[in-house]
Amino acid sequence: MKQIVEKILIPGVKNLIVVASGKGGVGKSTISANLAITLAKKGYKTALVDADIYGPSIPKMFDIENERPVLSDVESNKMEPIEKYGVKINSIGFFVDKDKSIIWRGPMVSNAITQLFTDTHWGDIDYMIIDFPPGTGDIQITTVQKFNINGALIVTTPQEIAVNDARKGAEMFLNSSIEVPLIGLVENMSWFTPKLHPEEKYYIFGKDGGQKLSSELGTPLLVQVPLIKEVGEVAEHGENYCNLQNEEMNSIFEKLAESVTQIVPVLS
Questions:
Q1: pLDDT for the residue numbered 46
Q2: What pLDDT does 119 receive?
Q3: pLDDT at position 104, please?
Q4: Where are the domains of the chain?
Q5: For 186-203, how does the pLDDT look when each residue is reduced to its tens digit (9 = 90+)?
Q6: Number of other residues whose CB lies within 10 A of the CB of residue 8
Q7: How many angstroms separate the CA atoms of 230 and 30, rounded?
Q8: 13-263: what CATH class?
Q9: What is the pLDDT of residue 235?
Q10: Alpha-carbon gap, residue 121 to 101, rounded angstroms
Q11: Which pLDDT does position 1 carry in this prediction?
């Protein structure tokens, strides 16, 4: 029998979208960050929650590691998120030493992730993007059980081991005790094209893994993102793909954002 859990409502937030993967290293945070930025560019009121308690990377990717949220309302104990590129952001990375590991058991992690959502004054938000850590652990379970998640994006790379882990990550959302709808798949690092040979594609991590998983799960493969060295380099410096003026990447993230807004529209 399915357990009924009363959901926590986040005032002003219309849609919560999780970005998940079965394993690390597939570029999930890059997808989360650039999707959020693209939605904001398109005029949507956008937030980004870095839910990777043990390895928060969003502050580094936005070059806001030294920022600290401040209390906006002492009585309600709410803090103001950090805003950059039109995206409101909160992360455990703002509150811990970036050079030290976080050694917390499950209950502490669950409390921390809940507070990121509930103790932040988000205001009016059309899309809140949630950057999950790899796997199917306490953070994922706490989030999907406590909050109304409108959909999940699954990120994978083409090789078989990543696809196998992505399949497990997707199946968590399809579980009868969770039942979060899948928006679709994003295949990252799909191929590499040398700058001097723009007509060539090298499938370094294999080919068609995302399409095969899409067919298995009955959910669309929304975009394939090529491996572009400069994307990782600008992220290391707290910038984003928009700074590259790369038409291909702009087109890919525009398509992804368009798919998300069509599948999960903003309802008044």
A1: 98
A2: 95
A3: 81
A4: 13-263
A5: 999 999 988 788 888 999
A6: 12
A7: 12
A8: alpha beta
A9: 66
A10: 27
A11: 42
pLDDT reported for residue 14: 97
| pTM, 2 dp | 0.92
Contact yes or no for 154/39 (Cβ under 8 A): no
Residue 141 CA to residue 155 CA, distance in Å, equals 18
Write the DSSP assignment of the chain as a string of letters: -PPP-PPBP-TTEEEEEEEE-SSSSS-HHHHHHHHHHHHHHTT--EEEEE--SSS--HHHHTT-TT----EEETTTTEEPPEEETTEEEEEGGGTS-TTS-----HHHHHHHHHHHHHTB---SEEEEEEEPPSSSSHHHHHHHHHB---EEEEEE-SSHHHHHHHHHHHHHHHSTTT-PPEEEEEEES--B--TT-TT--B-TT-SSHHHHHHHHHT--EEEEE---HHHHHHHHTT--GGGGT-HHHHHHHHHHHHHHHHHSPPP-
* pLDDT (0 to 100) of residue 247: 80
Q: What residues in the chain have per-residue pLDDT under 70?
A: 1-5, 73-74, 231-245, 268
Question: Of 241, 227, 167, nearest to 27 (Cα)?
Answer: 227
In terms of Cβ atoms closer than 10 Å to its own Cβ (0-12, 13-18, 19+), residue 203 is middle
